[in-house]
Amino acid sequence: MGVHPRALDYAESLPDGVIPDESELTCGTRIEPGKSYGFFTDTTLCIGCKACEVACKEWNGLPADNLGLTGNSYDNTGDLGANTWRHVAFVEKIGSGDDRAREMKPFQSNWLMMSDVCKHCANAPCLEACPTGSIFRTEFDTVVVQQDICNGCGYCVPACPFGVVELSLEDGKAHKCTLCYDRLKGGLEPACAKSCPTDSIQFGEIEDLFGRARRRVEDLHGKGATDAYLYGAPDTPGATGGLKHLNAFFLLTDRPEVYNLPVAPTRASDRVRPSFLTGLAAMAGLTLAAAALMSAGRERGR
Amino acid sequence: MTGRPVTAETMPGLPVEQTAIPHPAVREWNGETYYDLASLKPSPFDWKIAAYVYVAGLAGSSQIIATLADRLGDGRDETIVRNGRALALAGAVIGAPLLILDLKTPGRFYNMLRIYRTRSPMSFGSYILTGFGVASGLTAAAHLIGERRADGSRSPMRRAADMTQVPAAFLGAGMSTYTAALLSATSTPLWASAPRAMAVQFGTSAMATAAAALSLGEQIAGDPENSRRLDGLAAVSAAGELVASAFAEKRHHEAGVGETLRKGPIGTSYRAGALALGLGVPLACHAINALSKRPSRGLSVVGSLALLAGGMVMRQAIFQAGNKSAERPDDYFRLTQREPEGAKPRRRVDRAIEGRRNGRDPGRLP
Ligand code: SF4
Ligand code: SF4
After folding, report:
1. Which site among B103, B177, B341 would you substitute to test the A interface, given the most A Cβ atoms closer than 10 Å to its Cβ?
2. Pairing between strand A37-42 and A248-252?
3. Shortest CA distance to B190 belongs to which of B133, B126, B89, B258?
4. Residues 6+ apart with CB under 8 A from A136
5. Quick one: which of A172, A234, B77, B205 could link to A152 by a disulfide (CB 3.0–4.6 Å)?
């Protein structure tokens, strides 16, 4: 992508204020309410620099946590949570113990790195579970928790099929990635995508992103990287069990489980009907049995 | 590993390559996890919600039994009616604070009634609880004011109580079992793997514990005949629960997720507390009583107490085991190797879309 012609209007290093529709200059996308936006995270481009993690914490004012070393490669963040909305996973494909590889193919990375995030599911289980309406779908087709409504019931937490949303014990509310709702309103590209130096995280209109991602997969296949595939695009792993698609989807090169993702996650609310109707049927049967026993007992008792 | 492997046949839509290189998403899962870290977050529900499930079931089913006793009874069931209505109200009165105390921002509990959502048992369950509480409160209050007259006729107040008890009983059926839907409609492997069996488990346990509590009341009131009928109901329900538990275990096994409920201290308390003490002992006690000419009061009381204790152990064990299963990535990944129960498209148009999709050329990337 070349430099946008409008960029020349803002050549000074300290602009006076917010650049109108700045996202057009940084990622070629104009942000308009009513359209669907999302992330395409191309893990083959990730270098594990964690700029996205830092940018997210900075912009959203999230406190640091998990200070310490996990011993799991360079991943000292661990997982997504109330205070971590981007998380870079590090997978070292060199085996372990006696299986540790001694020779490696030249010019091949033996690392898998992936910047994980809330998937902003098309049929978001967290949203469907929320009894207060605190979790809602924004005008940008993203999924956001309204902090002034959440009462900390915690039902969204086990509903999410990706273990994303979490309750904070500090304030008793649920927190997760907002896809920078405030920035989108101001015409800014989300902080993580803007800070990503390799464009591993790409922000844009979701249909554009799907197209871009498919072309990228074909491109990679053409180069011999036949392992590349999409996770969370329509009809691919991750977009299963009624989830339709994920507004934040990924390009992966190994089994989803390797990156801590389920291959066929499901829409939790699809289980409400079978369970509740079966339960009511059982109660109807028990009521009949109770009625029979009550009356029969009375006959005998006479 | 149980469950079907993910291949192009079992998961249509997966991209398949023409080359001999196995596609990474199509090759079988070899048990890889990400440093064995959890892939899900466990629910923040603790013993309070498990206790609520128990109390809600007991209260809901008590209202059903009270209603049946009132409709079908001949006046000698009056204590069942009274105790049942009192238990129903007590359940709503104890249950609501248990739920509210488990909120992390309890001051905002009223937001539960801010919207209504059929896809969220936490949402429609709040309405069931509210409606049940109101109807049971009215029933119990009117009952207290208008006891049946000595000649067996009913005062206007008592008739009002008899009217409000009908909606209360219907909501009682919901109270007895919606909590299973609440658990199943999550991604927690143990709960998600057996939505139907768990609903029956919770429902039958609700009826069994309600019958047991009311049977104890009859023993105290000195009516062994009534106790015997309630014990019969308790035994039938407990037998149903035993079957449902077996089905649930089969489902867990098929999905490869049952270990947290089978092993360790939780497994022991589930087997010894919920199954042996909670179902085996009462079934034995009530069976002996049913067969003998002179039923023993002691056996009936022991059976009822065991049932009541077992029901609580069962809920607590299922909660703890579920939360633990959410922290085990291999449980979740085993479960998600297959399309789970209950995800089949319901509407004709969805099935049509699904059908068209399955006919697509799988070699092309979508
Ligand atoms: S990934 Fe989880 S938290 Fe994010 S939208 Fe989907 S269900 Fe909600
Ligand atoms: S914790 Fe808050 S956001 Fe999550 S389901 Fe409950 S009310 Fe909704």
Report:
1. B177
2. parallel
3. B258
4. A127, A143, A144, A146
5. A172
Residue A184 burial (CB < 10 Å; 0-12/13-18/19+)? buried
Q: Dihedrals φ, ψ of A68, to 5°?
A: 145, 175
Determine whether the shortest distance from the Cβ of A151 to ligand 2 is under 6 A: yes
Residue to mutate (ligand 2; options A126, A127, A145, A153; most atoms within 8 A of CB): A153
Q: What is the pLDDT along chain B (366 residues), one digit of tens a residue?
A: 333 444 444 444 444 443 344 566 667 888 899 999 999 999 999 999 999 999 999 999 999 999 999 998 877 888 999 999 999 999 999 999 999 999 999 999 999 999 999 999 999 999 999 999 999 999 999 999 887 666 767 888 999 999 999 999 999 999 999 999 999 999 999 999 999 999 999 999 999 999 999 999 999 999 999 999 999 999 999 999 999 999 999 999 999 999 999 999 999 999 999 999 999 999 999 999 999 988 899 999 999 999 999 999 999 999 999 999 999 999 999 999 875 444 454 555 555 555 555 544 333 333
Side-chain-side CA neighbours of residue B192 (13 Å): 35
Identify how many contiguous H helices and E strands chain A contains and give both numbers: 8, 10
Q: Which ligand is nearest to the CA of B123?
A: 2
Amino acid type, B120:
S
Asked if A251 and A43 touch (Cβ cutoff 8 Å), the reply is yes
> Which chain A residue lies closest to B17 (C-alpha atoms)?
A226
Inter-residue contact B85 to B63 (CB < 8 Å): yes
Q: How many CB atoms lie within 10 A of CB B298?
A: 11
The Cα-based distances of B165 to A286, B63, B161 in angstroms read 18, 7, 6
Q: Which residues of A246-266 are buried (b: 16+ CB within 10 A; e: fewer)?
A: bbbbbbbbbbbbbbbbbbbbb
Chain B residues with CB under 8 Å of A161 CB are 40, 187, 336
Please judge whether A160 and B41 are an interchain contact, meaning their C-beta atoms are less than 8 angstroms apart: yes
Q: How far apart are CA B199 and CA A14, in angstroms?
A: 62
This complex has an ipTM of 0.93
Calpha distance A174→A151 (Å, rounded) = 8
Q: Residue A271: its chain B contacts at CB < 8 A?
A: 181, 184-185, 192, 195, 340-343
Report whether B202 contacts B170 (CB < 8 A): no
Calpha distance B365→A86 (Å, rounded): 28
Query: How far is it, in rounded angstroms, from Cα B166 to Cα B88?
Result: 13
The pair of three-digit structure tokens given for residue B285, joined into one six-digit string: 């006690």
Dist. CA B207–CA B238, nearest whole Å? 8
The helix or strand, by DSSP H or E, that contains position A166, with its residue range, turns out to be strand A166-167
Angstrom distance (rounded) from CA A133 to CA B112:
9
- The tokens for B261 are 């409920």
Among protein residues, the one with the nearest Cα to ligand 1's atom 6 is A121
Using alpha carbons, list the distances in angstroms from residue B198 to A169, B148, B178, B181, B263: 31, 39, 10, 8, 19
Structure tokens of B312?
């609580």
Q: Tokens for B253?
A: 């096994």
Cα angle: B176, vertex B181, B187; to 5 degrees = 150
Query: Can you name the residues that pair with A84 across neighbouring β-strands?
Result: A81
| Placement of tokens 């709960």 in the chain | B191
CA B6/CA A96 separation, integer angstroms? 26
C-alpha B210/C-alpha B95 separation (Å) is: 15
- Going through B118-265 in order, the beta strands assigned E by DSSP cover none
**What's the rounded Cα separation, in Å, for the pair B263 and B242?**
19
Amino acid at position B322, single letter: G
